[in-house]
Amino acid sequence: MKAENTSLAMDGFTIMAAIVIAGFLGAAAFISAGVYSLLAVPMLIFILIALKGFISLEPNEAVVVTLFGDYRGTVRDQGLRWVFPLCKTQKVSLRTRNFETERLKVNDGAGNPVEIGGIVVWRVSNPAKAIFAVDSYTDFVTTQSEAALRSITARYPYEADGKGATTLRDGRDIVDAALAEEVTARVAQAGVEVIEARLSHLAYASEIAAAMLQRQQADAVVAARARIVDGAVGIVTDALDQLRDSGGPNLDPATRSQLVSNLLVVLCSDRAVQPTVDLSGSNRKGSGD
Length: 289
What we know:
The chain is α+β, with helices and mostly antiparallel strands. The chain has helices spanning 12-32, 40-51, 127-132, 137-155, 172-187, 206-245, 253-268; strands spanning 10-11, 54-57, 61-67, 70-75, 79-82, 88-93, 97-100, 104-107, 113-124, 192-204. The chain is rod-shaped and about 140 Å long.
């Protein structure tokens, strides 16, 4: 394919002035009713043919020009332009576009079905490729973006058991960057530039959503209990250290174990503890004393 060429398009106002002059000359020749009147016919033909060569371009628009099936170049200059009338012209918008994919059901990296959707922001960077490389560049971008989204979803799990692993839920920056790279590679042949690609929707599929919710709740409960136990152990350790440093009673191993057990039960219990008082005879003086 030839490189883009804008020199084939002439200024439209210059050609319009030439057409006006040709019109006056043709009219004058026709009115003369002499030999020069024969010039009126070619002048009229010239005007009719020249009028077909005008094209108007708005900002961020381009026109791909072909002549008898041969690519001649791309016109990017906005305003009124003129090309050879026998050329075929096709307009291409260079404006930035965006679209949101449908919510796709895909298995993630761990094999769990998830619902996922994405947003792709793109623009045409090479109008000639967009016209000649694919049938419909808009449909091509849509299809390839969905294919890239499926590929990225299968690469990462929704959530990982191990720490530090990249997941769809927590590693959005990495996943979005990978998605943009994947879409860019797939649509490059259509002359399309990807400006941004990111996830817009992420959830477990309905058939496993309830089970995964229970799993998340169980993980949260386990994590909360582990934190409570860690805090309780620290509190008990500090209490025993304070008893020792403040000159408290010297506890034998059995009493120390019982104290630790009681404190852990109090601190780790999810219910309020009811204290009891030992009023057994072993703690009272005998009646004969």
